[in-house]
Protein: Prolyl 4-hydroxylase, alpha subunit
Amino acid sequence: MTSALPTAEPPAASGLLLPYHTQADWLPPDLADALLDHAIANEARFQPGSIMQSGRLTVDETIRQVSVLEHLGPFQERVTEAALAAKPLLETLFGIPAFTASRVEIELAAHGDGAHFQQHIDTFVVVNKRPNPRILTLVLYLHRRPRRFAGGALRLHALGGAAIRDIAPDHNLLAAFPSFAPHSVQRLTCPGGAFADRRFAVNIWIHR
Ligand SMILES: O=C(O)CCC(=O)C(=O)O
Ligand SMILES: [Fe+2]
Structure:
């Protein structure tokens, strides 16, 4: 006697959007403004943002065009604390079993005219031959008001389908998602091109 094999359901054309979370006014307003001022004051220290390709960090502006600063200076500790405070809620919302954070990795990114980041995930298998276990990605957006750039949405992409969700990078908005979720930064325009007018983002990765 033969029994029928279960037939796999074809994925819906829209695919599966992974859970994500947004929170307006994430930091106390004074802190968000001070962080933006810090970013603007440190223009000279920003470097071209890199990507991981074949296990190596490289700069490729066809994939990622952005300037980054590796440390938040006097704000590192307070932002780390805010990220760790958000962790239990994010674990619950995303269905990720509670884990002990071994590291909170933070960088400050400045997206100017033409900046973008193609669809990618934030998890690497190895970095410098060590596991790089990013679990949660948190992005805090900062910009001068009124906003002087257009575009630059964070786009979340569905698994196995064409669905997308665009998130406008509003000042002091937190966007969070599992680090393995595909996402991209839509190309932006920043006419005039002043550094202070850029789309700033604090990228935070909580490692297990
Ligand atoms: O700026 C954003 O909205 C996301 C940036 C990003 O995906 C990254 O730096 O890995
Ligand atoms: Fe990313």
